UniProtKB/TrEMBL annotation:
It comes from Aureimonas fodinaquatilis. InterPro entries: ArsR-like_HTH, Diverse_substrate_MTase, HTH_ArsR_DNA-bd_dom, Methyltransf_11, SAM-dependent_MTases_sf, WH-like_DNA-bd_sf, WH_DNA-bd_sf. The lineage of its organism: Bacteria, Pseudomonadati, Pseudomonadota, Alphaproteobacteria, Hyphomicrobiales. This is Metalloregulator ArsR/SmtB family transcription factor. PROSITE patterns: HTH_ARSR_2. The keyword Methyltransferase applies.
Length: 330
C-alpha cells in the first residue's frame, strides 16, 4: 500500500497531459528520451523535465545501457495504482492515437535497420557471430545447462542460419525455427536439407507473434536474440504463452557491457542484460529462473563480452499472473 502523501504525489505526477501520455507510452515498453521526443514532438528539455517529475514520484525508473539511457514503468508500490489508471483511458482519443502511430513508426524504423543489417550479412553471419562469441564454449555450456531432460517439441526463436536447430534438433521429435529474415532462413534451409532433418522446419515469423498451430513447445531457445529486440519483455511473454506446462525457456545473451560499436555497427539495441532484468522478464511471464551460467569474458582488449545462459521453467501448476521466486545466475 502507498502512504497517503505518496499517493497524492503520484496522482499529481500523472495528472498532467504530457506526463500521462508518457506513462501510457512506457506501459508498452522501454524507451529512450530521443524516442519520446520523436513521438510526442516536444523538445528534449521539456520531455526530460516531465520524466524527472515522474521519476521523483517513483512512477518510472531510469537505467543506463552504454551511452543510452532508457526509461520504464517502475514496478514498485506505485505500479498498482498506475495499472488502475491506464485501462480507463480512451485509446481512440485522437492525441493518443497519434502517439501510438508514432511509437509504431519508431519501432518499425528500428526493425527495418536490423532487417537491412541481417540481409546484408546473412551469408557471413556465422563468422560475424563467432567474432564476438566463443561458439564452441558457449554451445558446450548450453548443453550442460539443459542436461539430459528430454524435450519432444523444440522452438528456436530468431534461428538465423539455424545453428541451434543443428545442435539441439536431433534430440527432439519436432523442431521449428522462426526468423524475420528471408536471407537468414534461406541459409538455414540449405543447412537443414543437407543434414536430412525431416522433422525440422523453418519459417518466417516474429518473436512477438509465435506460432501455436502445431501445439505447445517443451523447449524454446533465444540464442543471441534478445539484444536485437525492441521489447525483450514482450518476446519472453510471447514465448511463455506457447511453452507447455513444465516446459523450459533458455536464453543465451550478453551480460551488461559498454561496447557501443555493437550498437552502431551491428544493430544491437540492448547492451546486455543483468540478472535483475532477466528475473523481471521471467517473473512477468510467469516463469521461474531455474539455472544459469556465465562464461569468462572473451574478445579483444577493451571489447570483452561475458556470455550468460539463463534457463527458466513454466511451472506445471502456476496460477495466472503468479509471481515466482527466481534463482540467481551462477
Amino acid at each position: 500500500m502507498l502512504p497517503f502523501t505518496e499517493c497524492v504525489d503520484l496522482l499529481k505526477a500523472v495528472g498532467e497531459p504530457t506526463r500521462l501520455r508518457l506513462v501510457l507510452l512506457l506501459s508498452q515498453g522501454d524507451l529512450t528520451v530521443s524516442d519520446m521526443v520523436t513521438i510526442l514532438g516536444q523538445s528534449q528539455p521539456r520531455i526530460s523535465r516531465h520524466l524527472k517529475l515522474l521519476s521523483e514520484a517513483r512512477v518510472i525508473s531510469r537505467y543506463q545501457e552504454g551511452a543510452w539511457a532508457y526509461f520504464r514503468l517502475d514496478d514498485g508500490a506505485a505500479a498498482g495504482l498506475v495499472q488502475c489508471i491506464l485501462p480507463t483511458l480512451d485509446l481512440l482519443d485522437p492525441m493518443l492515437t497519434r502517439d501510438a502511430e508514432r511509437l509504431e513508426l519508431v519501432r518499425r524504423e528500428r526493425a527495418e535497420r536490423a532487417a537491412d543489417y541481417f540481409a546484408s550479412n546473412a551469408a557471413q553471419w556465422d563468422r560475424i557471430r563467432s567474432m564476438h562469441v566463443p561458439d564452441a564454449e558457449t554451445e558446450k555450456a548450453l548443453q550442460a545447462v539443459l542436461g539430459d531432460e528430454p524435450y519432444g517439441a523444440l522452438l528456436d526463436v530468431g534461428t538465423g542460419t539455424g545453428r541451434m536447430l543443428e545442435l539441439l534438433a536431433p534430440a527432439s521429435a519436432r523442431a521449428l525455427g522462426i526468423d524475420a529474415s528471408r536471407e537468414m532462413l534461406a541459409i538455414a534451409r540449405a543447412k537443414l536439407d543437407s543434414s536430412n532433418y525431416s522433422h525440422v522446419t523453418v519459417r518466417q515469423g516474429s518473436a512477438y507473434h509465435l506460432p501455436a498451430d502445431g501445439g505447445k513447445f517443451d523447449l524454446i531457445t533465444l540464442h543471441q536474440v534478445l539484444h536485437y529486440l525492441d521489447d525483450p519483455a514482450n518476446a519472453i511473454r510471447e514465448a511463455a504463452s506457447v511453452l507447455s506446462p513444465g516446459g523450459r525457456l533458455v536464453i543465451v545473451d550478453f551480460a551488461p557491457h559498454d561496447c557501443e560499436f555493437l550498437r552502431t555497427d551491428h544493430a544491437h539495441l540492448r547492451l546486455g542484460f543483468s540478472d535483475e532484468t532477466l528475473n523481471g522478464y521471467f517473473e512477468g511471464a510467469g516463469l521461474a529462473l531455474e539455472a544459469g551460467q556465465t562464461l569468462p569474458p572473451a574478445g579483444k582488449t577493451g571489447e570483452e563480452l561475458t556470455v550468460l545462459i539463463a534457463l527458466a521453467r513454466k511451472p506445471a501448476n502456476a496460477l495466472p499472473g503468479e509471481h515466482l521466486r527466481s534463482a540467481q545466475l551462477a
